[in-house]
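cache lookup: miss for this entity combination. No prior model stored, computing from scratch. Input as submitted by user K.M.:
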Amino acid sequence: MSVELDVFVGNTTIMDEEVYQLWLDGHTVNDAVKVRMEGGVLDECEASADVLLSDTMDQYRTFQMCERLLYSPAKLANQLLFQIPPHRQAMLIERYYAFDDVFVREVLGKKLSKGTKKDLDDVSAKTGVTLKSCRRQFDNFKRVFKVVEELKGPLVENIRQHFLLSDKLARDYAAIVFFANNRFETGKRKLQYLTFQDFAFCAGQLINNWTVGAVGENNMVEDMDVDLDKEFLQELKELKILITDKDLLDQHKSLVCTALRGKTKAFNEMEANFKNLSRGLVNIAAKLTNTKDVRDFFIDLVEKFIEPCRSDRWTAADMRIYLTHYHNSAHILDTFKHQVVWDRYMGVVKSCIFKMYHD
Amino acid sequence: MPGKLKAKIVAGRHLPVMDRASDLTDAFVEVKFGNTTFKTDVCPKSLNPQWNSEWFKFEVDDEDLQDEPLQITVLDHDTYSANDAIGKVYIDIDPLLCSEAASVISGWFPIYDTIHGIRGEINVLVKVDLFNDLNRFRQSSCGVKFFCTTSIPRCYRVAMVHGFVEELVVNEDPEYQWIDRIRTPRASNEARQRLISLMSGELQRKIGLKVLEMGGNAVVGYLQCFDLEGESGLVVRAIGTACTLDKLSSGAAASINTHMHPNTAPASNACNSPSKDGKEPVFTEDLPSSSGPPTPFRALPTTSSSPPPFSPSKPCSRQSSSSDTDLSLTPKTGMGSGGSAGKEAGPLKTLLRQQTQTALEQREFPFFTLTSFPPGFLVHVGGVVSARSVKLLDRIHNPDEPETRDAWWEEIRQEIKSHAKALGCHAVVGYSESTSICEEVCILSASGTAAILNPRYMRDGCLDIGSSDHRLFLSMCVCMFNVNCVFEEPSPPSCGFCHIPYDELNMPFPAQLTYCYHCRRQKVPDVLFTTIDLPPEAAVTGQGCLIQARLCRLKKKAQGEVNATAISNLLPFMEYELHTQLMNKLKLRSMNALFGLRIQISVGENMLLGLASATGVYLTALPAPGGIQIAGKTPGDLSNEHHILAIQKRINDTIAKNKELYQINPPELTEEAVGSPIPEPRQRSRLFRSHSESSDELSELDLSHGKKDAFVLEIDDTDAVEDIHSLLTDAPTPTGFYSCNTEIMPGIYNWTSGLQMFTSVRVFRLSNANLTNQGLNKIFTDLCENLLKSLYFKLRSMIPCCLCHLNFTVAVPEEELIQVAVTAVAMTFDKDQSQEKPGDRAMTKGGSENEEQLQFPLELCAESTSANNQPSAKIPAPSVDYGSFADRCSTWLELLRLKAHTIRRGSVKTISSSERCSPLPEGRSRSLRSTRSFGGSSVTVVKMTPLSFLPGTRIVKYLGIINMFFIRETTSLREEGGVSGFLHSFIAEVFAMVRAHVAALGGNAVVSYSMKECVFMENPNKNQAQCLINVSGDAVIFVRDTDQEATPAQMNTGQTCNSGTDGAT
């Protein structure tokens, strides 16, 4: 004796946000029922476990049916199958595309390929995010990636319009797409301390300053926000003069040291390390024409700059003041002609390092 | 060539990928009407094609316009192989044929495929140019408006109510044609959908013709059903109430003072006669009368229909006595005298008829499918009348012709009519018909509420016709009045309808009569059952609630006549038990009347299911119900006694709790009733009601004699144990929820605009174990209760809210499967105001009239003495009259009756507590509260509701009827999420298609929505399932009452007041 069929369909589709979250998190119906019971819904409504089970199954079914619409959220607004008030549609989409930082951290910069997808069970085991949820998140990344890949125009805006996401979420997706496209290495042990939000911030900087679209002349180039500006990368080589020209290097150092003297406890270390650090940063810039080195951009920043500073116990304020002067002083160097490129480079590197300089 | 249909295909979107290679589709469209087909160009490689076609023009007869749907097929062009169909859209163009409805159909329609469901959408424009100046073909009835709504549509007023219309068409079911063996399931499904669409169109056209002949211009309360008879055919039948409607000017809708003029005959004379003193109606015993229905069963086996009309009601020969009443009724005929045709139909009708010369006689059935009426229209309500008949489908001689089925229904309707007469009523309101089919056995059922309608309205109606007759008519009426010594006084609207219509001397069934607790002038029964909505002007104490009786009865598997006989034999018992359950539950809630009663009996191979749903209320005019007493057979046994006491206590507690819950606190409630000692053992033979009745009479105004026996349940009786069990296991509705199966909840008047219509379906599989009736009952009851609980849980975010129009449908799709489907709407209301009481209205009136009526009571008393004996004496008598069949009938009738006595003996209620007709707080509020508005949405939001209105809004236009039939089939059940996934998406698709059609008509809501059929079949082993769904409703445009006043419900009440007043004075 059993209930063979049990459905509930409302003219306005009923969705419980709590159950939606459980579904998104990849819980099975039974787990979800357990969680809900512990949450105390039953007490509020004098219902029994059966009722809860039936409700949960119904909702899961509804979500499954909605899922294919969520693949292209714009459809949700003009499809006829489910009558869902606009604010609920927004909620459905936003939550569907939301992701776990721990998860995204694992796949950030990886190729969004089948191979990566196969490894998701490891990721799931490692992060504690259910496999189902991992897959959903991964598929979301991939879907967004595929769609924007072929679109012209600004990346964030495209994502927001195509997937009807909030600005914040759209920016995060832009970061993910950007990382996946450029295959930035983020998985090395030395980078483990960095959160997704750190990377997302850096991605934002890179997108806004280093890509083709950043220049702003023609707004309708394909991949304008995804690919780095090749010309710019080429020009970065010119910065080498800062370290190859002995005079220039010394001059730069003295300018910086003059400005810093007495303003920080770490002055001595700064002075001692100046050349090394400067070489590190400039070399990173000079090598960016190589795809391989682009991928290692973050690891290089950490190895060549952040780690040495950290071992010298610079505080965040030290870092700030040092880099500010390091950047600005170059403007005063008479023989240094590449101010524009320098600004474009240092502006980004500075803010990335500020963001990345933490424990 | 009376019309030109024009269609334009604009665009498509979200089409499915039909070509795997390119992930695209080369779509084109075929537009077909009748035998003409047009095609658009192919729009290559696009999932969002833009065709922007020319206007395709079809020149057609208006007859075809009515019958045929416009058929749009979307296909994928394939150079090498046959083109693949993506899906279809059927558009019913009927709404375009009526000038007052929609003028254009334009919008996105889901493209539907019976195998794959919705596959994308198509944008279509459709227009019709009708050449009105041409002579109308008699075959068409363009322009007649149809409404599913069972009350007068909100933006119309009734100039005249012409009466009952019905029609039935039959065809071979494509699913059973030989060709079905060689065609694809898709082709078969589409053939069926198209056929039904055609048949519905034809049916509507034919009904329209009848309406035109009657001189009307609309059908209200249109109820169309399908009978899938299988081999013997596919039947589409419909009933409705023909009216002449006038559109209210402009926004005046709110002030609608509709008068219904039932010119229909029924009302007329009948009214007078009954007027005898309006007394009370019926009730309890409806049962018996209902039992009537079963009667036919006898006949049934002989499929042929010897219409033995049964007698049940007749058995109550008293009716004959009532014949007096009848007489008065009959006079109509007499009166109609003028009218040859008068027959039973109300004289008025006849008169009218004569006048208008429309001369159709078929008004033989004074039935109204309406469930709510303009104030003052309904004079008295007699009680529920119902009839059932079991037929064998394989015995139909000419399966392709409608005659046999026509005869069946005719028989049933006759029976209903005679039941109504037996109750002293000349009309039946809230009338509906249904069937249940299992293999070759078919149970036909009809039910309604016997009533007396107001002649005054008729008179108004007559105005339209010609004054002279009218006068004549009036004078006749007056005579009659005199004769009867009855004066039709305006009874107070708040209680008048409760007064019994039948003659106290010739009560059709045993009942306890008391003086109306409201006006004190006329008699009322102790309990009142009806199939209509609670009249808005009725005085009610506290809130109402949903009451259900559920029953399962096993039967042996059998075939043919044996099977039919077995079913027939079970029916009366089922009706009886359902009735008993209803009574018990009603008392347990301390209520005294049921509205919206709907009893469904569904037949399966090895069982019968019975489900009765109604909304219980405490009518202020009726006496307070007595408590329920438990009695043990062996009083000596201590442990037993203890047990009984425990149960008794639980019952008493429950009653007390319910009173509080539903805020039922009529003036003096009577501990006695509740806690009174168990009445003395009653003897079976005792005539029932003798005492209590007489005491009533004597007491006249003083009704308080505390100790009437309360309702007694004997616990030794297994049935009783079961009853008690089910009584106590009904879970109370959770806090914040109310539920009812009527349009609105008695006692709640301040609706806000929150609205959620839903459909829920459950199928339960019984294990193979040998089940007993009790076991089955328990399962069935639990199934219903759990379903309700789930609904409450789902809708908890809407609290405080009320589930209105809870419509349960049960079926036994296969052996061991029980299917329950519910459609209802949850509506929010403002809690703070729910308890306000209006108080004043009506009550005052009641008081003032009191004195004039004093004389009547006297008379009544006199009569009543004699009355007591008669019924009892007569009961057995009737049985004699019938032939062998009848014998059977009478036997069970008697049996029922006996049983009834034992059980209800005492049912009398009683606690007559109050002597004053003090105005009780009515618990109704007329608050004017503007409602919040819904959030706006970018897509056209289409509201759906089974009610005839949307709270907080005004309906400004009716766009036409929506009547859609869909089939969905799958051969990949598992992949679609199993049976639940399959049905879930199908129902969602049906909703979507309804909404799309409404939106295309320019509407933003469907009112009076109902899912009339949901036939689900599965074969999990083959991974297959099929489902058929039929839905209907009225497409409307509503506007929000931003202003001040009034949600429709409130309008209603307000309106009531006004017109009620007018009427009364």
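stored under new cache key. Chain A touches chain B through 41 residues (CB under 8 Å).
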